[in-house]
Design a protein that fits this description.
The complex is a heterodimer of chains A (117) and B (107). Chain A has 117 residues and is mainly β. Chain A is built from no helices and 11 strands. In chain A, the strands form 2 sheets. In chain A, strands 2, 4, 5, 6, 9, 10 and 11 form a 7-stranded mixed beta sheet that branches. Classes of the chains: A mainly beta (117), B mainly beta (107).
Chain lengths: 117, 107
Amino acid sequence: QVQLQESGPGLVKPSETLSLTCTVSGGSISSYYWSWIRQPPGMGLEWIGNIYYSGSTNYNPSLKSRVTISVDTSKTQFSLKLNSVTAADTAVYYCARLTYRNVFDIWGQGTMVTVSS
Amino acid sequence: EIVMTQSPATLSVSPGERATLSCRASQSVSTNLAWYQQKPGQAPRLLIYGASARATGIPARFSGSGSGTEFTLTISSLQSEDFAVYYCQQYNNWPYTFGQGTKLEIK
């Protein structure tokens, strides 16, 4: 079965760039949208953006100016870059698969990223 | 963006009883509404999509209803493993948005 695993630094300094990678295993990265979603401590969920395996993207307008999502089909990975981070970007970051029904059916375990000097 | 509002924020119910959770959208989302369950330290799990269709492997005690702006998630007979936080999410319009969650706790 398909599994997702986030990886990347757990601590990022203010004003720097947060970079995370999600590795897809047990299945194909093709024919699906792949998403990033975050959850600040004790708070709700915020959709960050999606990428199709072909490379087309959709971003949340609230983050669009700072976000880049990319895909590497040869490595079955997709990545998130969020620049100019502040403490407000501290959150658990999840990667997830978006099905053709437009729901998130498979999630990674999540990775906590803290923005602090 | 569409704002999703869940009520109540916390619901206290005894095991074996029925729980009813509500979700309201700031504008119509048709039936493009999903429900997720999240337990502490875990990722959310898809329960319901299309407002009323159960996802693969979800027990029949979970049911969803509604359309337009008003939605309900019902858990018919609460089991110990059902106490968690529940989120609704609309996927009718970009950006996809989630409610703030309802915490279902043991009474």
